[in-house]
């Protein structure tokens, strides 16, 4: 077999591998988007809608899962947690969840909210987040108070600008959805 033929076969193999990678990546992204059943809320919307309906009361939400985004303005700190502990123990007496820390986040319209975090997240947040970072959160909506929602963060992901290939896949998915 001569060099030209071998180079041609290797080129074809790389090309086929590249197309398989693109197709596989697209299907993974679509499957990930479809399995997400947790509702997404705008933080500004939550600050208005998730308040106690009667003044001076707190209304339980019973740990409904939600997603939202916010900008970190204060990294993990010790915070009052007696009420949250009581709710956790009342609803799930055998729970091992510990939440003595919180962070403060701000919405797109500069409204701030102090949220609880599961303590095991604190070290990772201190290591990987900076003040001003945009972050996607998953949380339990525990209660509504006169000040807004009581949220317990159980997952977070720092938002980063997508690379060119991710933008290509996002745009492709957007076109598929619009074509339907």
How would the blueprint of this fold be written?
Blueprint: H1 3-35, H2 43-49, E1 59-78, H3 82-91, E2 101-106, E3 112-117, H4 122-128, E4 134-145, E5 148-158, H5 164-179
Parallel strand pairs: 3-5
Antiparallel strand pairs: 1-2, 1-4, 2-3, 4-5
Task: Give a description of the structure.
With 180 residues, the chain is α+β, with helices and mostly antiparallel strands. It is 41% helix and 31% strand. It is built from five helices and five strands; from the N terminus they run ααβαββαββα. It has helices at 3-35, 43-49, 82-91, 122-128, 164-179; strands spanning 59-78, 101-106, 112-117, 134-145, 148-158. Strands 1-2-3-5-4 form a five-stranded mixed beta barrel. A hairpin with a 5-residue loop joins strand 2 (101-106) and strand 3. The longest helix is centred in the first third of the chain and has 33 residues, at 3-35. The termini are far apart. The model has no long low-confidence stretch (mean pLDDT 84).
For this entry, give a set of tags:
five-stranded mixed beta barrel, alpha+beta, 180 residues, elongated
């Amino acid at each position: 077999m001569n060099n030209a033929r071998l180079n041609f076969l290797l080129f074809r193999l790389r090309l086929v591998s590249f197309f398989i990678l693109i197709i596989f990546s697209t299907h993974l992204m679509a499957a990930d988007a479809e399995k997400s059943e947790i509702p997404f809320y705008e933080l500004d919307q939550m600050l208005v809608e998730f308040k106690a309906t009667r003044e001076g009361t707190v209304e339980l939400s019973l740990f409904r899962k939600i997603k939202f985004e916010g900008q970190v303005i204060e990294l993990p700190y010790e915070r009052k947690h007696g009420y949250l502990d009581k709710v956790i123990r009342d609803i799930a007496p055998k729970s091992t969840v510990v939440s003595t820390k919180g962070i403060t986040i701000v919405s797109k319209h500069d409204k701030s909210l102090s949220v609880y975090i599961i303590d095991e997240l604190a070290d990772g947040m201190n290591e990987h987040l900076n003040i001003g970072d945009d972050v996607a959160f998953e949380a339990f909506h525990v209660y509504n108070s006169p000040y807004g929602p009581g949220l317990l963060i159980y997952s977070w992901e720092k938002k980063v600008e997508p690379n060119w290939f991710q933008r290509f896949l996002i745009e492709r998915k957007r076109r598929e959805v619009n074509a339907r």
